[in-house]
Specification:
Order of helices and strands: HHHEEEEEEE
Strand order of the largest sheet: 4-3-5-6-7
Helix content: 25-40%
Structural class: alpha+beta
Shape: rod-shaped
Radius of gyration: 34 Å
Number of strands: 7
């Protein structure tokens, strides 16, 4: 005798869609991608701001050096200076004293002492000066030292704060008594 075994056949119907785990993994991947993208964009904005500020600081440092050379050349052409010390002490007295730090206003060409911070101001017309306008984040200081009888060095430092980090651009150059 044979017995008949009945087997049930199961049929599986596959439904299309996401499981909760697949949805969570997709959301996680999307979140990581968006976070990375935002980080790159934020860093790019910070870098472009830093580059802009550094370009302005370089221009301000070059301008400070040109102001020193302009004043020196005018003084040499109008007076007879026999050594660099006399030129520096007559024309740039605040720049050469003990711990001498000075500023030169580009509008008036006035050489003034600066012991504390000396922020530059930005005028409505877009020019930096020390007299009027909105206070800018930039500070420019100038120092001079006599090296020999015929020459000296000048250093122009432009500083600013980027985020929480102090930054600066420094230019140093030699000055000579070029007229005899």
């Amino acid at each position: 005798m044979f017995t008949k075994i009945h087997t049930k056949q199961y049929s599986y119907e596959y439904k299309k869609g996401f499981t909760i785990i697949e949805a969570l993994v997709a959301i996680f991947i999307l979140t990581v991608s968006v976070t990375a993208l935002m980080s790159v964009v934020t860093q790019g904005i910070f870098n472009s701001s830093y580059i802009k500020n550094k370009a302005v600081a370089i221009s301000l440092a070059q301008e400070g050096m040109e102001l020193v050379r302009n004043i020196q050349d005018s003084a040499l052409l109008s007076n007879e200076y026999v050594d660099f010390d006399s030129l520096a002490s007559d024309v740039f007295p605040p720049c050469v004293s003990n711990d001498g730090v000075c500023t030169i206003d580009p509008l008036s060409l006035e050489v003034a002492s600066c012991q504390d911070e000396c922020p530059l101001r930005l005028s409505d017309t877009g020019y930096f000066n020390y007299t009027y306008g909105e206070v800018s984040p930039f500070t420019r200081t100038i120092t001079m030292n006599s090296d020999t009888v015929d020459s000296g060095t000048v250093e122009v430092i432009v500083s600013w704060v980027q985020g929480n980090t102090p930054r600066e651009v420094a230019y140093q150059s030699n000055l000579f008594l070029w007229i005899e």
